[in-house]
Amino acid sequence: MLQTPNVELEAAAFRQLLSHFQQHTEVQNIELMVLADFCRNCLAKWYAAAAAERGMDINYEQAREIVYGMPYSEWKEKFQTEATAEQLAAYDAKQKLKAKT
Asked: Domain 28-94 belongs to what topology?
């Protein structure tokens, strides 16, 4: 394992992750939460927190726009679908499992 992180490589990988999420709008946040235990909103929260830790003035809504590639309200209107009963059940099961650990 590398001792010193390469910020340039990490930044490039992060930009690719954002691009991938922006290109795959068919993947819903609830699906990401069930499968990966994080979603676009989580990423935006982490981004805003990292900015705050560094004294930068980027709030959650601004971070969401960076992650979504557009204002969240616009993305939600264009791409977000209602969660299915199956998706909600899978999410609830995952949350219960996490609570036990």
From this structure: SMc04008-like fold (1.10.3340)
